[in-house]
Amino acid sequence: MSVLVVSCVARTCLGDDAETFAALLRGECGVSSLRHFPARQLNVTSGYQLPRQRGEPAPYAGSWLAGCVTEAVRRAGLDPNRQRVAVLAGTGLRELRAVERWALDGGAVCLEDLHFTGPVRRAAPGVTSVLTLSNACSAGGYALALGQDLLELGEADAVVVAAADTMTESMLAMIGRFADEPADRVRPFDSGRPGVLLGEGAAAAVLVPEGEAAVPPVARMLATGLSCDAHHETAPDPDGIRRAMAGAFERAGRAAREVDVVYAHGTGTVLNDPAEAAVLTDVFGSDGAGPLVTAVKGAVGHTSGTSALTSLAMAVHSLRAGVVPPVVGLREPLGEGRGLRLVRDRPRSADVRLAQINAFGFGGVNAVSLIAGPP
C-alpha cells in the first residue's frame, strides 16, 4: 500500500529545499573552490560545499541531519512523545571526517558519535528508535523502502526518513586518483563530462499511513524497488538497475508509460551515465514519448547517501509546481541519452503526477522510488 509524505526538507550548497529548487530552475551551479582540504595533493580543486556556520557543532553531518529532522518533524505536526516515531538515517560516509580529524590532529573521538543516534534524539526527543544505514549512494532510497515497510507492518505511527553526508579526505583522494585533471563541475549525461565531484547536504521526510496525516500531505510514496547485484565494486550493472525499476513498477502497480518525470542518479561519470541512460531508454523507449528526465548533481554535486532524498525533495516541488528543472551543466547529451527527453537549458512546464527517483551505489545497491501527487 502507499503511504503519505507529510513533509520533506533538504539542505544543499544552494540553500534549503525551496531555495535549491528555485536555483535549479534558474540553472545555477553551486560549485566552488575546495575548502578545508589540501586540494593540490588530492587532485580535486572544486566541490559543492555547505558553509560552516560560526558556532555550528562538529561533527557536521550529524548537525545538518539534526536540523533537517527538527524541521521535518515540525512541518509534519509530529509529537514523538505521544506517537511511535522511528527514524531511519541513510548515509554513505557517516562521520568519517571526524575520524580523519582525529587521525590528523589527535584528541578523542567517541564511537557513539560516528552514527546519528545522538543528534537525532537531541533533535526529536522521544523517538522510539534510530537506525543508521550506510548503503553508499543509495542509502536514502533504501531508507524510504524500509520506512514504508515499517508503516505497512504497523511497527510505527510515523517514520522520519533522513540522510546526511559531508566531504571526507579519503573519498576526495579516491576521486582525484581517477582523473588526470581535476573536474571543474559535474555535467550529468554530457558527452564531455569530466567526472564526479562531492556535494554536502542533508534531508529528511516524514512518512505516515494513509488517513493519519496531521497536516496536508505533500506527496504519496507508492513504492521503492531494490536490487543488490554485487556485479562489481564500483561499476554499475544495467541488469541490476533494470531490476530495481521493474520492482518499483510491480510494487506500485504502475506501468512505465505512466511516469511523467525521472529524477535520474546522473553522476556525470564515465560508466554510470551511459549505463543509466541505456536502461532508461530500454524501459521508456527512444521515440521522444517517454518521461522528462532531469538530474540535480550538476547543481548540488554528488551528496552520496543523501542523493535520493535530495531528489525526492526536488520531485515534491515538481509535483506541486508543475515544472521540471533542467540538468545543470548539460551541453551535448551523450550518445546513449539522445533518445531521452533530457531537460536542457530551461525549465519545462509539465503535468507531473508520477515521479521516479533513481539512486545507485557502489557494489550494485540500487533503489528506485515512485511518488505521486497527494490524494
CATH topology: Peroxisomal Thiolase, Chain A, domain 1
CATH superfamily: Thiolase/Chalcone synthase
Overall average residue pLDDT: 93
Q: Give the overall shape, derived from the CA principal axes.
A: globular
Percentage of residues in strands: 15-25%
What's the SSE pattern? EEHEHEHEHHEHEHEEHEHEHHEEEEE
The top-level CATH class is Alpha Beta
Question: How many domain modules?
Answer: 1
Count of separate DSSP helical elements: 11
Helix content: 25-40%
Distance between the termini: 14 Å
CATH arch. level architecture: 3-Layer(aba) Sandwich
Number of strands: 16
Structural class: alpha/beta
Low-confidence stretches: none
Radius of gyration: 19 Å
Described by strand count, sense and barrel closure, the largest sheet is: 12 strands, mixed
Please outline what is shown here.
By secondary structure, this protein is of the alpha/beta class.
Tell me what the structure shows.
The chain has 375 residues and is α/β, with parallel strands linked by helices. It has one domain (3-372): Peroxisomal Thiolase, Chain A, domain 1 (3-Layer(aba) Sandwich). The chain is built from eleven helices and 16 strands. The strands form three sheets. Strands 1, 2, 5, 6, 7, 8, 9, 10, 11, 13, 15 and 16 form a twelve-stranded mixed beta sheet that branches. A two-stranded antiparallel sheet has the order 3-4. The chain has a two-stranded antiparallel sheet with strand order 12-14. Strand 1 and strand 2 (15-16) form a beta hairpin. The longest helix has 17 residues, at 60-76. It starts with a strand and ends with a strand. The mean pLDDT is 93.
